[in-house]
Amino acid sequence: MQENPQDLIRTAFTAFERGDASRAAALAGRVLEIDPGHLDALYLVGTVHATQGRYEEARGFLTRTESYAQVRRPVYGSSIGRHRPFLPYLGALVSALDPGGSD
After folding, report:
1. Mean pLDDT across the stretch 59-73?
2. Which of 20, 38, 60, 95 has most Cβ atoms within 10 angstroms of its Cβ?
């Protein structure tokens, strides 16, 4: 029986919010094995890499999401506010993703 991506990603975000970035990335990775275009999983893995200062790896995942706008103005904020713990990291990440500062 195949794992449910929604259950996995929910558990992954919970793990990350509790400070377990490696478990969060592993669970999100399993989601990406099932659905390589899963936006929440791409976002989470990219965010984990960014919080670890691994900006090039973060870029690889985040550029596969719909747009850089998800990083500059997280769409998840209005619905679940998950971006708030990552705000201290977003400045450096945005610079790494878009060094020219274009919108």
Report:
1. 67
2. 38
